[in-house]
């Protein structure tokens, strides 16, 4: 995969909607002033809809070919058909996997030609994970829970497990629908870890078809893959996975964010969601937003990346003086 506009990591500029997702629009992009008055009016209407009722998901979005959608529902109807029509949905998932089947099984491959962001990404994740583990996985004796287990979802070639998870967890399971990636992960992890820190299970299935083992995991890590799931499958996955967390366990979702609405990538069949879009889905899952953090140090042309820590238990009330920072404290998704 090249560093083209269609790289899953590059913030696409192919749209005319009210989005500010683009870095620099391609020369073919129509400017606002060149638009007809009615199109300008439509944009203004959309802008007011965006600010008024994100809750209803009636946010506009665009695809990588410049097509605009008035709502996420409109886009999903077009991409996966009406409810109950499994043919189009099956094709959506098949196309997503086929795309990745054509990508080299390397760090550069799974990062869309941006292999050099690996270090910054892992460092950002490690700082986030460490804080969360100290807060949530420490037992009454002040040590971490006895035997820690993580699940790496859409693991690709095992990049995150190898560089991060295996150092903190006694066991890591990997889930990845592309067989060649999972084979590479198995190879990459063969010499990583130790007797007490190892990759255990390699599941070659897509997230939408997976139900993790009940009560097995302290952390379920979902990074750069949930954009392949439709909204309903997203919600359904987290609902199934809730029962697989141990007490104190949590989800980490680390994903690209567009500024508003959504951006559909026609090439790899994925969507980049905005922060409010994610929050609405988390709320539909009945998850609590425990902590969030922006990933720093990534190249400017890429989408912004955010980490969300989500719990199934209600976060405890935090009693702080007004002078303490309000950011990053546990909160229920509003
Ligand atoms: C951008 S790569 C990221 C891989 C890995 N998470 C990382 O950060 O190194 C996206 C991954 O999502 C996987 N993927 C595609 N469709 C998926 C699905 N339906 N369920 C789970 N993973 C999927 C791809 O095969 C690919 O390995």
Automatic annotation (TrEMBL):
Catalytic activity: N-terminal L-alanyl-L-prolyl-L-lysyl-[protein] + 3 S-adenosyl-L-methionine = N-terminal N,N,N-trimethyl-L-alanyl-L-prolyl-L-lysyl-[protein] + 3 S-adenosyl-L-homocysteine + 3 H(+); N-terminal L-seryl-L-prolyl-L-lysyl-[protein] + 3 S-adenosyl-L-methionine = N-terminal N,N,N-trimethyl-L-seryl-L-prolyl-L-lysyl-[protein] + 3 S-adenosyl-L-homocysteine + 3 H(+); N-terminal L-prolyl-L-prolyl-L-lysyl-[protein] + 2 S-adenosyl-L-methionine = N-terminal N,N-dimethyl-L-prolyl-L-prolyl-L-lysyl-[protein] + 2 S-adenosyl-L-homocysteine + 2 H(+)
Function: Alpha-N-methyltransferase that methylates the N-terminus of target proteins containing the N-terminal motif [Ala/Pro/Ser]-Pro-Lys when the initiator Met is cleaved. Specifically catalyzes mono-, di- or tri-methylation of exposed alpha-amino group of Ala or Ser residue in the [Ala/Ser]-Pro-Lys motif and mono- or di-methylation of Pro in the Pro-Pro-Lys motif.
The species this protein was found in: Eutrema salsugineum (Saltwater cress)
Classification via PANTHER family: AD-003 - RELATED, ALPHA N-TERMINAL PROTEIN METHYLTRANSFERASE 1
GO molecular function: N-terminal protein N-methyltransferase activity
Protein name: Alpha N-terminal protein methyltransferase 1
Disordered: annotated segments: 20-44
Keywords for this protein: Methyltransferase, S-adenosyl-L-methionine, Transferase
Ranges of biased composition (kind: Low complexity): 24-39
One GO term (biological process): methylation
EC number: 2.1.1.244
Domain of life: Eukaryota
Enzyme class: transferase
Family: Belongs to the methyltransferase superfamily. NTM1 family.
InterPro entries named in the record: MeTrfase_NTM1, SAM-dependent_MTases_sf
UniProt KW Ion transport keyword: no
GO cellular-component term (any): cytoplasm
